## 1
Amino acid sequence: MAPSTGRDLSDPTFRASVIELCGALAYGELVGFFTIVHDAQTAPRLAYRVALAKVASNEFTQYERLVGRIEELGGDPEEAMAPFTASFDEWVRRTPPSSWLEGLMKVYAGNTLASDFYREISAYVDPQTRDLVKEVLQDSGQAEFAAQELRQAIADDPAIAGRLALFGRRLIGEALSQAQRVAADRDAITMLLVDDGSGHGADLAEMTQIFARITQGHTDRMEALGLSA
Amino acid sequence: MAPSTGRDLSDPTFRASVIELCGALAYGELVGFFTIVHDAQTAPRLAYRVALAKVASNEFTQYERLVGRIEELGGDPEEAMAPFTASFDEWVRRTPPSSWLEGLMKVYAGNTLASDFYREISAYVDPQTRDLVKEVLQDSGQAEFAAQELRQAIADDPAIAGRLALFGRRLIGEALSQAQRVAADRDAITMLLVDDGSGHGADLAEMTQIFARITQGHTDRMEALGLSA
C-alpha cells in the first residue's frame, strides 16, 4: 500500500474523494442502524434485543461523527451519501435473514466487512479523517456479541451450520457485487484508491488485492465460527 | 401534590417502588426506540429517517441511564421491566400507524404522554432519581420535530385532520387503558403514588387527577396541531 500522506485537502479532487468516501461510510452506518434494529425484533429474549439496540445505537453515533467530518470538509452529507444508497439498500434487500441466527450473522458479517474495508481505506485519506475512521473501527467490536451467540448456537446444534454457511456466502457475494458496482460507477472513490500518477493511492491491481483480502478475512471468520466458507 | 421528600431509600418498600418505576420508564424508552425506528422506515425522505433515528438514539441513551439508576439502587433491570412489557407491547400492537403521518403522530403523542407522566411522577421519588427523570424529560423535546411536520402537513392538506384526530384519540385511549391496567396490577408503583398514611404520596383522588391532567395535556396538544381531540 502507498499511503496518501502526500496529498492534502487543499486539492479539490482529493477533498471531494474524501467527502464521498465519508458519505459511503456514513450511509453504511445508517443502514447498519436500521437493519440491526429491524432484525432485533425477532430476538428470542429481551436481553438480546437490548444488546442489539446498543450495537445499533453505536452505529448511529458513528454515523453522526462521519456526517460531522463531511460538514467540516465543506460537503453536504445527504449529497455525499446519495451515490451509495442504492447499493447498500440493494445489499440489505438481497440478503433477508430467514431466522434470528441469520439476522445475527448479518450483523456480524456486515460489521466485520465494514471494519476490514475501513482498515484498508484508512491508508488513503488525510490524517484527521484517518483518525476518525480508526475510532469508528474500534467501536464496531460490539459485533463480538453476535459472534459469541453464533458460536454457541452452532456448538449446541451443529446441524444449523450448513444453512448458516450458505447465508454467509450470500452475504459476502452480494457485498462484493455491490462494491464492484460502486467501484465501476464512482470516479471520486476510485480516484482515491487508484494511482493518479503521483505515486499515491493504490493501483487497480492493489484494488483487486483489497477485495481479495476482505474476502479472505470473511472466510477466516466463517471458519472460526465452525462454518465452511 | 405531596412530594415524598420525607421517604428515603433505606425504606425497602420505597426503594422497591422507585426501582419498579424506573423499570417502567426504561421499558417505555426501549419500546420508544424500537417503535420510532420501525416507523422511520416508511419516511418519504432520507432526512426524515435520519431525524427519527436521532430521536430513537436519544431514547436508547435515556434507557441506559434509567437502567444505570436501577442498578445503583440494587435492582435487576430485566426484572424491573418485566411487569410492564405486556402493557407497553400491547399499546404498540393496538395502535398501528397506517401512514407516515400517523407514525409521526405516534412518536409525538408517545413522547409527550411519557413526558407528562414523568413530570407528574418526579414528585414522588428520591431526589437523585428525580434529577435523572427531569433530565430524561428534557431530552424528549426532540419530538418537536414530529410536531412541526404534522402541523405543516395539516396546513398543506386540512382534509387529513379528521383521520389524524381519530388516531390521536386512539393513542390516548389505549394509553390510559394500559396505564389503568398497570395501576390495578402493580402494588409497588401504586404504593408510590397512593397515600400510605404517612402523609406522603398521592391519594387515589390525586391519581385520578394525574390521569385527567395527562389527558388534558394531550387534548391541548392535539388542538395546537389543529385537530379536534
## 2
Amino acid sequence: MLTRIDHIGIACFDLDKTVEFYRATYGFEVYHSEINEEQGVREAMLRINGTSDGGASYLQLLEPTREDSAVGKWLAKNGEGVHHIAFGTEDVDGEAADIREKGVRVLYDEPRKGSMGSRITFLHPKDCHGVLTELVTSGTEH
Amino acid sequence: MLTRIDHIGIACFDLDKTVEFYRATYGFEVYHSEINEEQGVREAMLRINGTSDGGASYLQLLEPTREDSAVGKWLAKNGEGVHHIAFGTEDVDGEAADIREKGVRVLYDEPRKGSMGSRITFLHPKDCHGVLTELVTSGTEH
C-alpha cells in the first residue's frame, strides 16, 4: 500500500540558489542534504509537513553532479521543473513486484539507495501517463 | 505560512482512463470530482494522506474541457505529466501579498475558486525555478 506523498523531486541548475529561493519565498528550510553518486545528484530535502502514516512530505531539490546523469539529461532537455513524484510505502519490494505484475515497467531489478538511507525504485513515465513515479521506503538516517 | 503539500496537479488527455490507471495500479480512489468552467478543466481529486496541519494531500488529475484553456495549451505543448504543485495555507490572501512583495509574480489579482470550494492563486513558473506553484486555502465542500 502506498500511504503518502513522500516527496516531489524538482530538478534545478544551481542547488544553492534554488534552496535560497525556497527559503526566502516560503520560509522552507533544508532538513537534510547529501550527494548520491549513483544517481549523479546533489540534493536538498525540505520537510513540508508530517503525514498520517507517521512519515513526512518533502520537496527534494536536485542538481546533477554530471551532465550524463539521468537528471542532467532531463534538465538539458526540459529546463528546470518537476522531475518526478514519489509515494511512500512500508514495502517498496512488494509494491514494485505487484506493480510490475500489472504490466508497468519498474526501472530497477532491485530497489536502490535513496535519500536518508531510504530504498527506492522508479516506474517508467510512459506507463504512468507521463509522470516519472518513485516508490520509497524510508530509512532511518537524517 | 505554507503548512502542507496540498496537491500535485497532473494534466491528462483522458480523465477516466487516468483515474482508472491510478485505481488499478495503486488502489487510489476518487475522493471528489468536479468541473471548473473558469479554469476550463474536469478534475478528480485522489486523497493520498492526511497532513500534520489537519488537512490532506491529494493528486489532482486534470483534463481540459477546451483546447484554449491553460491546461489544454500546456498539454498540447508538453504532453501528459505534472502540471503544477500546490501548497496549503490558512491565508492565501496574506501569503500571496507577501510573496508578491518579494518580487514573485502572482497570476491573479484576487484568489479564485479552486477544488472543493477552496480559494487559490498561482505563482509564475519563471519566478519559481520552472515550477508552476499554486497556493490554496481549503474550502469546506467535498
